[in-house]
Automatic annotation (TrEMBL), chain A:
Residues 7-243 form the ABC transporter domain. InterPro entries: AAA+_ATPase, ABC_transporter-like_ATP-bd, ABC_transporter-like_CS, P-loop_NTPase, Siderophore_ABC-ATPase. It comes from Paractinoplanes pyxinae. The keyword Cell membrane applies. It is a peripheral membrane protein. GO terms for molecular function: ATP binding. Keywords: ATP-binding, Cell membrane, Ion transport, Iron, Iron transport, Membrane, Nucleotide-binding, Transport. SMART domains: AAA. The keyword Nucleotide-binding applies. The lineage of its organism: Bacteria, Bacillati, Actinomycetota, Actinomycetes, Micromonosporales. Coiled coil: none annotated. This is ABC transporter ATP-binding protein. It comes from the Bacteria. It is found in: Cell membrane. It holds the Pfam family ABC_tran.
Automatic annotation (TrEMBL), chain B:
Pfam families: FecCD. It comes from the Bacteria. Keywords: Cell membrane, Membrane, Transmembrane, Transmembrane helix, Transport. It comes from Paractinoplanes pyxinae. Gene3D superfamilies: ABC transporter involved in vitamin B12 uptake, BtuC. It is a multi-pass membrane protein. This is Iron chelate uptake ABC transporter family permease subunit.
Length: 271, 343
């Protein structure tokens, strides 16, 4: 797989009903890298991701994949290049892990086509990559949150897209499972060159696991670039309205944000 | 350890064999109950007598009883049951909620009210009645969908609005029937709970044609419908065109339901029960459309046999299916309530 796809957002305006969520946004997703999008609640992160994967039509502007407008591309053709894992996908009652992962093959199948050898290979590879092979026959309802999230990612892997967008893939997971999921996505990026764009809640996880960090504030781009240059005390104040101290994470060398609340802070450090 | 595609193949083949087996068994059961309903009655006829009637020979007694009464009745039961089952599971799948069945959210009530109105007030017959039923069914589907639309359709809101509209339409049916003095109770039952009494070849043929035209249209969307179970966003991200799928599926399913309703009345709870029963026995490996249709056919055929011969009095088929369906509805409502109201 190659990572030569370009994904561009040009003067994009998005909204629901009377409400405008994103005013006018320009950004470029670096190919073959991991991009994390951060921002306060309701700043338009998920809306942006939905529009990038053609689930929400722009009010104005474009989302361009390799120079073509995603909203004008045939649905299945787009779904063979760009995958999206929404924030709360629904597992049908009683579905088994293997069946769920197999549904990721939909964009590769035609109306009357039989299940192909490539389909089986893709499902096997997805089971392996996500360490879910021994769960294959289990009903998804019975899995733990961390296992379930790995299964959903496996479904997105079975789709075999060069670009993968994920909306808060670590929400509701405890810290060890968060790390597991983010390590898995990093493997995917390093081994297959898959371009990853993910919305993350946790700033420090976003800074550690991304090559490119995008900070949104009130539907506008606040900053984008290398995490070390984006995640600054000023940025945290502007985006989240929070005073903080940003240090260098001794384990990763990436920036680490320490919030300064009203309590538990030594007086010399108060802003 | 790496998973070989062979392991995946093995697993998949095992489940698809099971699926084929279950569908086969269901089909055999439908045929068996169908044949039994041709044989039993006031007079018992043997298989060979029935076969001769089917071939067009004149068999004293059987030619009329089987050829003109039992055959159209059993055929209509199987076809209408199939339409109710497949139409019901389509709505339940699309709206991802077992309560969102067309007989709960007012679609069959609309078709039924319109059919009763067309017959009693306008004096229409056959095709005219079916057209009325379809227009009303589609109309109700559009009204319920539009009223519950606010940044997308929420299942719970749609179901509550649907239940309200169904209640309104059912009272409209009751009013129309009360204005028709010459109608007897048997006929009235048909439009209130559904009945196969007086089934004719003409009605049967209409339902068969509807199934022949709309069935393939619906089955063509089986895969998309199957993907919709994952939620709208996930399905769309996997290449499903949501709006187009919904329109095709709603038109085809409402058409099937309306034709069946125009012929038999709204046979209670068949649309509601068939999908969940099929899902229970077939699992998640594939589309539920055909299995639900077969379960629907089996339910109507079986319920009609019970209604006609199990008791001293003959009951219309809808009374029997109603007795089966009501407890399940109560069970679903209780379970929903315990789960904190999220359907």
């Amino acid at each position: 797989m190659t990572a030569t796809h370009t994904l561009l957002v040009e003067s994009l305006k998005l909204g629901y009903g009377d409400r405008t969520v994103i005013e006018s946004l320009d950004l470029a997703v670096p190919p073959g890298r991991i991009t994390a999008i951060v921002g306060a609640n309701a700043c338009g992160k998920s809306t942006l991701l939905r529009s990038m994967s053609r689930l929400l039509a722009p009010r104005h502007g474009h989302v361009l994949l390799d120079g073509r407008e995603v909203h004008k591309m045939p649905a299945k053709e787009l779904a063979r290049t760009l995958g999206l894992l929404p924030q709360s996908p629904i597992a049908p009652e009683g579905i088994t892990v293997a069946d769920l992962i197999g549904r990721g093959r939909n964009p590769h199948q035609r109306l009357l086509s039989r299940w192909s050898r490539e389909d089986d290979e893709a499902v096997a590879a997805a089971l392996d990559a996500t360490h879910t092979a021994d769960l294959a026959d289990r009903p998804v309802d019975e899995l733990s949150g961390g296992q379930r999230q790995r299964v959903w990612i496996a479904m997105a892997l079975a789709q075999q897209t060069d670009l993968l967008l994920l909306d808060e893939p670590t929400t509701f997971l405890d810290v060890s499972h968060q790390v597991e999921v983010l390590d898995l996505l990093t493997d995917l990026n390093r081994n297959r060159g898959t371009t990853i764009v993910m919305v993350l809640h946790d700033l420090n996880m976003a800074a550690r696991y991304s090559d490119h960090l995008i900070a949104l504030a009130d539907g506008k781009l606040h900053a984008a670039g290398d995490p070390a240059s984006v995640l600054t005390e000023d940025c945290v104040r502007a985006v989240f309205g929070l005073d903080s101290q940003v240090i260098t994470d001794p384990t990763s060398g990436k920036p680490l944000m320490l919030p300064l609340g009203r309590h538990h802070v030594e007086s010399s450090r108060m802003a | 350890m790496t998973t070989t595609p062979q392991a995946v193949v093995h697993n998949r083949v095992r489940r698809s064999r099971r699926r084929v087996l279950v569908i086969g068994v269901l089909a055999i059961l439908v045929v068996a109950v169908y044949v039994v309903s041709l044989m039993v009655g006031e007079t018992f006829y043997t298989l060979s007598e029935i076969w001769r009637v089917v071939l067009g020979e004149t068999v004293p007694g059987a030619s009329f009883t089987v050829g003109e009464l039992r055959l159209p009745r059993a055929t209509l039961a199987a076809l209408a049951g199939f339409c109710f089952g497949i139409g019901g599971v389509t709505f339940q799948t699309m709206l991802r909620n077992p309560l969102a069945s067309p007989d709960v959210i007012g679609i069959t009530s609309g078709a039924s009210a319109a059919a009763a109105f067309a017959i009693v007030v306008l004096g229409l017959t056959e095709t005219g009645v079916s057209v009325f039923a379809i227009v009303a069914g589609l109309g109700v589907a559009i009204v319920v969908y539009t009223l519950s639309f606010r940044d997308g359709v929420a299942g719970t809101r749609l179901i509550l609005i649907g239940i309200g509209i169904a209640a309104m339409l059912d009272s409209a049916t009751a009013y129309v029937l009360s204005q028709a003095a010459q109608w007897d109770l048997q006929q009235a039952q048909r439009w209130l709970t559904g009945s196969l009494n007086g089934a004719t070849w003409d009605e049967t043929l209409q339902v068969a044609l509807a199934l022949l035209v709309l069935g393939p249209l619906l089955l063509g969307q089986a895969r998309n419908l199957f993907m919709l179970q994952l939620g709208d966003d996930t399905a769309a991200a996997l290449g499903v065109r949501l709006e187009r799928t919904r329109i095709v599926v709603i038109v085809a399913a409402v058409g099937l339901l309306a034709f069946a309703t125009a012929a038999t009345g709204p046979i209670a709870f068949v649309a509601f029960l068939s999908g969940p029963i099929a899902a229970r026995i077939i699992g998640s490996a594939g589309s539920l459309l055909v299995p639900s249709g077969l379960v629907g056919a089996l339910l109507v055929l079986g319920a009609d046999l019970i209604g006609q011969y199990a008791f001293d009095t003959r009951y219309p088929v809808g009374v029997v299916t109603g007795v089966l369906g009501a407890p399940y509805l109560v069970y679903l409502l209780i379970r929903t309530n315990r789960a904190g109201g999220s359907l």
